[in-house]
Fold this sequence. Notes:
By secondary structure, this protein is of the alpha+beta class. It has helices spanning about 20-30, 50-65; strands spanning about 1-10, 35-40, 45-50, 70-80.
Amino acid sequence: MRLRVEFTTEPFDLDEAPAHAVAARDVIEAAALDAVDVGPFGNTAEGGADAVLTAVDALLRRSLAAGATRISLQVNVVGEGEA
């Protein structure tokens, strides 16, 4: 099964990426995921279910430890015909 995760961390800082956002980005970029898109207002990544779920666990733990006060995420099953 393939999953797509979309997430944001808060609080926002438009001048410089906060430590919690950098921690989340580092987790996603280091994970065994593909189709990674990291941006200032939202981030997405896709991969196998185990890889996505492992990355989400690390993302939550590391972002909270780095000062995130809110993490919004959505996980979707990516169908065979979806990109």
